[in-house]
Design brief:
By secondary structure, the chain is an alpha+beta fold. The chain is about 25% helix and about 35% strand. It folds into 2 domains: about 240 residues, Rossmann fold, CATH 3.40.50.300; about 100 residues, OB fold (Dihydrolipoamide Acetyltransferase, E2P). The chain has 9 helices and 21 strands. Helix 3 packs across helix 4. The longest helix has 18 residues. The mean pLDDT is about 90. The structure holds adenosine-5'-triphosphate (ATP).
Length: about 375
C-alpha cells in the first residue's frame, strides 16, 4: 500500500455571514490521499471544495480538526499550529492564480524559486526542466499575453512543478480552456504526473473531467462528504440520491413495495417485475440510468413509447410508468416508433429512501447565497 501523503482528521470550517448566519462550509471531513494518487473533490457550487483545498494549502485556518502532510501535522486547531503555505512542499494551480502579465515565461516559472532564494545556476536548471516538461521550451522570453490560453495554463503548471513538490493542488485548473484544449491538457497533466510521480488533489465541478483524471473521488454536498470511491464505483453504486444524480444521468421512480412486489406509484395493479431490496420500506425511490433499462425483451412492465428523441449518438425514449415517466436511452440500431407497445425491465437498480426533508431545507437555504 502506498504511503499516506495527505490526511484530514475531523476538519471543520465555519464562516459567520451577515445575512445567512453561520455556514459550515466544511463539516467534519475525514480522508486520506495516497502517494502518487490523483484524488478529486467534486460537488456543486458551495459544497466546500475550494475551502477544503485552501485549508490544505494553508491559506485558511481550521475551526476544528487537523491536517497532516506526509504524517506531519501542518494545521491543527487544538494545537493552534499553522505551517505557512510556502513551507508545505505543495505545488498549486488555482483558478485565481493567473500568470503574471508583466513577467516573461522564464520569470513567471522562476518566481517560486526566487522567493526561496535558490541560487542562479539552480534556477536556470530547474526552470529549463519545468519548461521542457510542459512543452514551453523556446518561449522563455515571451510575455504571457502573446501566448494561447493553453500555453498560459502550461506556464501555471510549470510554475507549480518547478519546486518539485510532492503534492499538487489544482483548483479548476482547466476551466478557462475550450473543450478541445481541456481534453489535451487533461492528458498532459496525467503524463506529467506519471513522469514526476507527484500526488494530485484536484477540485472541480465538472464530473466528466473528474472521472477521466481521478483514481478516487470525493463527492461533497453542502459541506458534507457524501461518498469517496473510485469513479466506477461512484457511478455504479452511488450511496444516495444526490450522488446518483450528480454523476451521470439518472432516472428516479417513486415506488410502492407490497407483499414482496414493487409497483410504480400510480399503478398498484401491475408490478414492475423487479426484486425489492432487503429491508425494503413501503415506499422507496428506485434509481437507474437511462441506459440501464431494457426495452427489447418481453418481461417486466408493459407500457408504450410515448416520445422518441433522436440524439447525436443514441436515441432517447420517454416511457410512462404509473403516474410517472422514465427516460430510456438505446443505441440507434434499436428502433421503436412513438405509440409502439413495449416492455421495460430495470437492470440492477439502486434503492433510496424517499427524500430527506431536512437536507432539502438546508439546500434551499444555501441556494440563497
Ligand atoms: P464553487 O464551486 O462555487 O467555488 P465551492 O464548492 O468551492 O464552490 P466554497 O467556496 O468552499 O465552495 O464555499 C463553501 C461555502 O462557504 C459557501 O456557502 C460559501 O458561501 C461559504 N464561504 C466560503 N468562503 C467564505 C468566506 N470567506 N466568508 C463567508 N462564507 C464563505
Amino acid at each position: 500500500m502506498a504511503e499516506v501523503q495527505v490526511e484530514l482528521r475531523h476538519v471543520t470550517k465555519k464562516f459567520t455571514t451577515k445575512t445567512l448566519g453561520d455556514i459550515v462550509a466544511v463539516d467534519d471531513f475525514n480522508f486520506q490521499v495516497y502517494e502518487g494518487e490523483c484524488f478529486s473533490i467534486l460537488g456543486p457550487s458551495g459544497c466546500g471544495k475550494t475551502t477544503c483545498l485552501r485549508m490544505i494549502a494553508g491559506f485558511e485556518d481550521l475551526s476544528e480538526g487537523e491536517i497532516l502532510l506526509s504524517g506531519r501535522p501542518v494545521s491543527s486547531s487544538r494545537a493552534n499550529l499553522y505551517v505557512p503555505p510556502e513551507e508545505r512542499d505543495l505545488g498549486m494551480v488555482f483558478q485565481a492564480f493567473a500568470v503574471w502579465p508583466h513577467m516573461n515565461v522564464f520569470e513567471n516559472v522562476a518566481f517560486p524559486l526566487r522567493i526561496r532564494k535558490v541560487n542562479k545556476a539552480e534556477v536556470e536548471r530547474r526552470v529549463k526542466q519545468a519548461l521542457q516538461h510542459t512543452s514551453l521550451t523556446g518561449l522563455e522570453n515571451v510575455y504571457p499575453s502573446d501566448l494561447s490560453g493553453g500555453q498560459q495554463q502550461r506556464i501555471a503548471l510549470a510554475r507549480a512543478i518547478v519546486t518539485n513538490p510532492k503534492v499538487m493542488l489544482l483548483d479548476e485548473p482547466l476551466s478557462n480552456l475550450d473543450p478541445h484544449l481541456r481534453e489535451t491538457m487533461r492528458f498532459e497533466l496525467k503524463e506529467l504526473q506519471r513522469k514526476l510521480g507527484f500526488t494530485i488533489i484536484f477540485v472541480t465541478h465538472d464530473q466528466s473531467e473528474a472521472m477521466a483524471l481521478s483514481d478516487r473521488m470525493l463527492v461533497a454536498d453542502m459541506g458534507r462528504i457524501m461518498q469517496i470511491d473510485t469513479p466506477e464505483n461512484l457511478y455504479n453504486r452511488p450511496i444516495n440520491r444526490f450522488v446518483h444524480s450528480f454523476l451521470g444521468e439518472s432516472t428516479f421512480l417513486r415506488v410502492v413495495i407490497r407483499d414482496g412486489q414493487v409497483y410504480a406509484a400510480g399503478d398498484l395493479e401491475h408490478p414492475l417485475g423487479v426484486t425489492p431490496p432487503p429491508n425494503a420500506a413501503p415506499e422507496m425511490i428506485l434509481a437507474t440510468r437511462p441506459n440501464a433499462i431494457d426495452i427489447t425483451g418481453s418481461t417486466g412492465y408493459q407500457t408504450r413509447i410515448e416520445t422518441r428523441i433522436f440524439l447525436t449518438d443514441r436515441t432517447e425514449y420517454l416511457i410512462p410508468v404509473g403516474d410517472q415517466k422514465v427516460k430510456v436511452q438505446t443505441p440507434h440500431r434499436i428502433a421503436f416508433s412513438e405509440g409502439n407497445s413495449c416492455w421495460i425491465r430495470f437492470v440492477d437498480p439502486m434503492w433510496y429512501p424517499v427524500e430527506d426533508t431536512d437536507e432539502e431545507k438546508e439546500r434551499a437555504r444555501r441556494q440563497l447565497i
